[in-house]
Every structure is written in C-alpha cells, then in structure tokens.
Amino acid sequence: MDASGNLYGTTAYGGGEGTCVLVTNLFCGTVFELSPQSGGGWKETILHSFGKGTDGQTPLAGLILDKHGKLYGTTSSGGTFGFGTVFELANVAGVWKEKVIYNFAGGSDGEVPAAPLVFDSKGNLYGTTNMGGPYPCGNFTCGTVFELSSVSGSGWKEQVLYTFTGGADGANPLSKPVFDAAGNLYGTTDGGGTSFLGTVFELSPLVGGGWTESVPHSFAGGKDGQAPQAAVVFDARGNLYGATVRGGSTDTGVVFRLAPAGGGNWNETILHSLPGNSRDPAFQSGVVLGQGGKLFGTIGGSTTSGGGVYELTPTKSGPWTMTMLHSFTGAPDGAQPHGGLIHDGSGNLYGTTFEGGALVVQGGGGVVFEVKP
Fold first, then answer.
1. Which residues contact 285 (CB under 8 A, 6 or more apart)?
2. What is the four-CA torsion angle of 104, 106, 108, 109, rounded to 10 degrees?
3. Chain segment 186-195, per-residue pLDDT in tens
C-alpha cells in the first residue's frame, strides 16, 4: 500500500503477453494496482504483464516501494537464463516501465526467488531464493540469501550472503528476510534443521565482511509445528512471531513466539494451534502485528471450507484467544487465502485468495479482499 491508499500486488497467472500464450494457457502473470474510488469501490490497473521475453514470469511474491515510488519484486522463473529475476517498475510520465535488474543464472547465485524483497537503510535489496547453491536437497538445491547493491553507472550487483546446506542450518527458504535494530537478518526455511522440518535462521554481519548464520529455532514437528514458509515479525521488545503450515493439533500449523533469552538463545512458545482439516495450507501466510499486541493471519481451506482470517489476542498465560474475523465461502468472497495480510493505519486488513470470486476460472480466479474491524 502506498501513502495514497493504493494497493499493489502480483498474480502468478493471467496477463497474456508474448511467448507465454503459446506455451501455456495460464500465461505468465501480472503486476496490478487497485485504487480506491471516491464513489466507493476500487479500480484495477495492470501495470505490467509478464511474458514478453526476458522480463520474467510467474511472480509468486508481493512488492515493495522505494522512496521514489518505484516498485520492486521477483519472478520465480523466466529471465535471461530461465531461473527467475528481480525486477523494477517505474512510473515514467504516467506509463509504468519494467526493467530486470538481476537475472538468476541457476548456479551459486541462486534460482527460483519466491519471496518479497526488503530494503536496508542504504537502499540495498535483500531476498532469498528457494533453490540454488552447490548443496543438494533431494532432487534440488538448498537455496540462498542474497543482497543486490546499486552500483552507479553499472546497474545492480549481486552478492550471496549465505548458501544453505540442507542440514541443521536449514533449507529452501520461502520467506523474505527481515532486519532487527542491530542489522541482523532473520527468516525461515521450509526444510532443514535438526529434525529436517524447518528453521528460523539469523544472519549476522561480521566486522571484516561476510555474514555468519545461526539457528534460533529448529522445528520438531507435532505440537512444535513444522514447515514455516512466511517471514517472521518483531514486536517492540524484540520477540519474533511467525506461523507454520504443518504441525499442531490438527497438522494445519501453529502460531509461535521466539523470545530472546540471552547468550544467543531463544525460548519458543506456541501461542495457538491453527484449526481446520486442511491439507492445502495457507501458503506463506504468516502473521502481522496489530495494536495491543494482537496478531492477525489466515488459515487455508479444505474440501468443506474456504479458509478464513483470524485474530489472536494475548492472554496472561496459556494459549492466546483466537477469533475468526471472516470465513470464506468461495463465491463471491473468495477461497484459499494466499500470501498473508497487510493492514492500514485504521486497522483494516487486506489480502488475497487463490481461488473463488465472482468469475469462475479454473475453480475461481481469486480475489483481493478487505476485512474491516
């Protein structure tokens, strides 16, 4: 969301430009803008349709804005080598122009970026790739954390900050990294760890250059949860919050807190086991932090449920109190929430669903929704 209240996002399918039309009937994806209208409702504008050639295809993640109003994001495939891109969209005299600022080559530099990016205070970009690097993780490779720095006159330069090995350090990140106040990066991996069920990792910059990795938490499955796919969030006290898509009482994930315990140690608390009988979880759902320490997130749907949006309220002890704010029905409000939530200054929540809506396209094309307090 920008300062004017416009929403920006991506679709993995649709568009219909160039070679993608010839290869697949799903096309290659879009970047869209939704603008609130004075008389009510929202107007959609397609800012870019992928598939023109080397511009990338199949964006799976959200976007970020810089101070000049430029949008940055990733595509999970396409580009010069076919292994994904980092792209920039700039509004030039009322027309949005896309530029690929980095093409992943599919080797040590990473491949298949599937998460949003994050800026540091100097304007450098940081992100993760789900695969890439020299270490095997099953039939694929284990993924990376990377930095892109703008070099005057010569574009952007990539540096791989860390390559996952698939062991205790984690494997196959699907989340963006986030900074703490000291400049350390935190994120999650879908696999790896001591039980090979996912981790929360930390990358700390070294004085002489380079970064060192540590693992604040390895998930053990069961009530502890497993397979975190979304980013973690910090509160004002330095506690980390996040969600997994497996584990818990119904194997549909948990919401957890990691509290710093000194000496580099962290204590995990399971705040709530997510409800449902879904085996198709809310991919990359995560949680967002609201006023009063409340947490908001989504749960995936099943054959009998379209999923929902929930609120978690702190209690003095034990599991937090869960309230379902909205349960999706499929049409017209959507089903299978995907990609998590954002909230504005008034407490309104915004998100997307993977299916459902008024138009029936392959089970429903999905919707962008708003939940008001």
1. 229, 230, 243, 245, 253, 297, 298, 299, 300, 337, 338, 339, 340
2. 10
3. 999 999 999 9
Report, as an integer, the average pLDDT of 37-56: 92
The pLDDT > 70 percentage for the chain reads 93
* Beta-bridge partners for 304: none
Query: 166-185, pLDDT tens digit by residue?
Result: 999 999 999 999 999 999 99
Last residue in a domain, options 218, 253, 279:
218
Band (pLDDT 50/70/90 cuts) for residue 118 is very high
Residues 248 and 346 placed together within one structural domain of the fold: yes
Same domain, 226 and 360: yes
Query: 């969600």: which residue's tokens?
Result: 243
Number of neighbouring beta carbons within 10 Å of residue 343: 18
Contact 170, 129 (CB under 8 A): no
For residues 314-335, one letter each, b for 16 or more C-beta atoms within 10 angstroms of the residue's C-beta and e for the rest, the string is eeeeeebebeeebebebbebbb
Q: Give the containing element (helix H, strand E) for 23.
A: helix 20-23
Under DSSP, the state recorded for 246 is B
Domain boundary, last residue among 218, 247, 262: 218
pTM of the model: 0.95
Range of the domain at 231: 222-373
* 3-state secondary structure (DSSP) of residue 172: coil
Number of structural domains the chain divides into: 2
Residue with tokens 């379209």: 306
Q: Are 75 and 58 in contact (CB under 8 A)?
A: yes
Amino acid in position 297: G
Q: What are phi and psi of 41, to 5 degrees?
A: 85, 180
